[in-house]
Give the backbone structure.
Amino acid sequence: MMSYRTRKMVEIFDELSDTLCKVADLAEFVRIAHPQAAHSQAAEDACVSISGIVERLNTHQELYCALRAIVDGGDKFPMSSLDQHVAQLFLFDFEQSGIHLPETERKRVVALNDSILQVGQRFIAGAVSPRAIPRDSLPQNLRQFFSVDGDQVLVTGLYADSPNAMVREAAYRIYLHPDKHQEYLLSEMLSSRHELAQLCGFPTFSHRALKASTAETPDTVNQFLDIMTQRLHKRAAVDFDVMKKLKAATNTGSTEEDLAPWDTPYYTHKVKRDWLQVGSTEFSPYFSLGTCMEGLNILTNSLYNISLISDELAPGEVWAPDVYKLAVFHEREGLLGHIYCDFYERPGKPNQDCHFTIRGGKELPDGSYQNPVVVLMLNLPTPCWSNPSLLTPSMVDNLFHEMGHAMHSMLARTRYQHVTGTRCSTDFAEVPSVLMEYFAADPRVVRTFAKHFQTQECMPEEMLVRLCASKHLFAASEMQVQVFYSALDQRYHGSHPLEGSTTSVLAELQKQYYGIPYVPNTAWQLRFSHLVGYGAKYYAYLLSRAVAAWIWQTYFEADPLNSFSGERYRQECLAHGGGKPARELVADFLGREVTPENLANSLINEIDSKNEHINRIRQ
């Protein structure tokens, strides 16, 4: 590989990666999404086969040594900063399998990775399993609200939308009651992750997870969370005070001091409904899928000079009859890629909104570009003979969010597919999608497309203002709980052994980070399945929101349809994918260092300005 090469080593590795990903990504999507069992099973077999090939390559010493040599000593061809960055990412992927370690330690890394995967899957299954209790242990007046199975009552969730406070409390205490097996699985996963990180040369698993991220270190994340906690304290207390007064007014004999964690979701929803008269059914007629897609077309055309055009399908091209294909065309550059839209609910379809990369974009040896192909999967109501698919406001938000991921994939113009589009650090990957939520919450944008599906009348202005304002109600208290979850995740993946059980750590941090007290004899963390998929990275949602808010305030708040700002955002953010270190990319685009203080400022500024806006509406 070394002497007779005519290309850079990183180009060869990227071509190998691209060839594997074209098979693996498509097979994984078909496995998840195809409605026919035979296709899904064949795709699963393909996933197993390709995983075996990847595992063999990841433990191939000659490949690793060749890459290590050019990272440490340079290539025979000049390497750019992009080449070096991508080569280091490939190297880190190799080292995830412990290939750089002595054989005994390498085998231990492989065993730990396998154990973490297995234990994590069992923890996720336990996190959503119903809780069964003896029927007689629940007061008779509450049994009617839950499923009864013989002599047992099944509690399947938190019943957060129940107007009955006793039902909400019972569900919370029962569903979140400590479970020894779940506690064992979580503790086992956390200790295995810590051992794995230390074997691979990191002080903690959090240090390992944050490598090459926007935050870069756990210290930065913890400083950000601590600043947010300090600045949210009084603002969240105002939210809780409103909820306490509302609870006291609606519950005879209740005091203003007894707000509990099972109350906050209920009263947040109640205030949205009562104060702003916001109910999903009132708005849905103005949000047919067709008008929403037209709104997205108007937005992407205004910002990026691109159009979303329905494209013809070849026989057998799609996996369900109601899937359609959009060609993404730029005014001057032509075709940029394709988006397959699998939007409607159907039996057996996964109940999740997702963006799937089917083929990543990259420069080809002849100078042309391999255009990206992605799938957006939603679960929207199926149209019927009398009505089109009508979306609730939250469905509109999800549509815009997922289209943000798609635009990241379409507009990235990276040399290497390993860093195309959303293949970037977790705490930057959500920035384009979260930013799209800001557009979906701005009356100037929604006004361009929200029209009644029967009369074609625009949404009345007072409805529009109420809807957009409702998305920011109780923002401080909702953000405070996200800060708490993020801090808990960081502590769990920090120094080990933990000081006490995972539940005692939870109780300690809840007192420090959240304005609602811990409820004794509950173990909320044992239902927190995000600890598996987002271990040490749960903070990424908050940090992505901070960056998105910062971008919005700097470039789009004054004029959300500004083509100059849109083109600059495209060229300086989206075009890079993961090809430029995220921290450097954000700092260059915003012209300021990415510090915990600056990140916190963007979120607090947003909360304060939206609260002022809501207060003006209420007056």
User: Anything to note?
Assistant: The two ends are 72 Å apart (CA to CA). The longest helix spans residues 218-250.
